[in-house]
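Hi L.,

As promised, Expansin:
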Amino acid sequence: MSGGACGYNIINADEKYAAALSGALFNEGQSCGQCYKITCNSQSGSKFCRDGSTVTVVATSFFPSERALLSDSSDTKLENEHFHLSQSAWNEISLDESKVVPVLYQRVPCIKQGGVKFTINGQAFFMVVLISNVAGDGSIKSVSIKGSNTSWIVMSRNSGANWHSNACLKEQSISFSVTLTDGQNLKFEDVVPENWSFGQTYSSPNPMQFNN
């Protein structure tokens, strides 16, 4: 499940709690980074639930429902709300005999260790920034970027948690203004140094992180 439609590079312990969302929940990538507490709904009559068990997962990818696949349509109205869990997360709420179980779910704040991470990719006049390790609401509504020699520039969602700009910011320190879907905003001033390079990840200093 590493990578996925959101673009996160999730490995080791993080991958245990990764989940792909159906189109009805994925919302064309706007739900990337959101956290959900999932409970197997034993009151539905399913005999495959682990009683009283819950698991908290983070949205990292997209997984269309069988109904949507059979229809060969991108219409999210054909999608049920469902989660495709990593095996470890699945085993925490369900017995292994079943592939599908009814669940109850709710959005919960994301709890993260360390600062917000900015991974710089692209090329001279097309910068793509993956923003990850976002606490609180988890999902991002808008991003602006600023070089040490520029004013603020609004970025566009490239795909999932990737945001892009056509600005050339070579040999400039870079700042970001990030607004979450719940309205929280933080400005990460000069979080990327002027000697930055493509392919590198830069983190905001602790405790600069969104509220849970």
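The CA atoms of residues 50 and 91 lie 9 Å apart.

Thanks again for sending the construct details.

K.
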